[in-house]
Amino acid sequence: MTGENQHTLRTGLILAVGAYASWGLLPLYLRLLRGVPALQLLSHRVLWSVLLLVVIVIITKQVRPILAAARGRTLLLLMASSLLIAVNWIVYIWSVQNAHVIEASLGYFMNPLVNVAFGVALLGEKLRRWQGVAIGIAALGVVALAVVEGGAIWISLVLAASFSTYGLIRKVVPIDALGGLTVETVLLAPFLLVFLLIESTAGRGSFGQSGGTDALLILSCVVTAMPLLMFAAAARRLRYTTIGLLQFMSPSLQFAQAVFLFGEPLRPVQAATFVLIWAGCALYAWDSLRAAGER
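RESULT FIELD:
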């Protein structure tokens, strides 16, 4: 491996670890804003992100390329992806605020396995034998949890399905990460701005009540945009299998916070489900490494 390739790999790893660590530690940030209603927090997250992204787009002179790309079928797909990411964010924020971080982490553990299933069912990708076994093991855990506990499993399923579907759309839409995220947030912004104005007029607005809360809400633009941009940059430098393995960082960090910092109870059926999910993920990771080594 040349020095240039080593530098590219090292940079890619730093960016990927930074992105996944940021997502994994996101509950700590959201817990600081427990007094802000989930939909208001989502609204601030989108609106402040729009401001940051527009500045980045102007500085990098990407306005015209983004406007040229975001039309027709691409714009329709970005409308769909913006709704999916909004659903994903609001459910995640609500789950953290209501002590369901364990269920949220389970959803993101399921995500890579759902991605594989989507690839086979919708993109015509070939499913290797051990990938099929991995999905089957994970599915067994999800079914067991749904049968025994029912209610809370909706968080995991909605998070996994919404983010996997979002990823599927972003995989086929012909626009880069910066352009796509900018258009998505711009599409959501008018509706969420109206909502915040209504809340503020009714005296329910959280912004302007506390300097510390205001600062944290403004910081949401960095918390939202930077990990996605780091991830996009990392994806251009690393193999897909490496990205696939590193993504387990985020739910692992979320799970550890839920159990050891937030004191969420880990019930036996949840523990059994996680064992099956982890087994499926481990098998998936092993098969990805094995396949990469054979190329």
